[in-house]
Amino acid sequence: MYRVIVSTTFDAAHRLVDYQGPCARLHGHTWKVTGEWEREQLDRRGLSLDLVHLKKQLRSVVVDMDHNLLNRIRELAKPTAENIAQLLFKRLSKKIPSGEYLIAVTIEETPGCSVRYETLTLAGGRGRGGHMASMPEPVTETAAETDPTAVNESEEEPPAPVYEDENKDKDKEAKNAGT
Question: Which region ranges are annotated with the description Disordered (predicted)?
Answer without folding.
Answer: 124-179
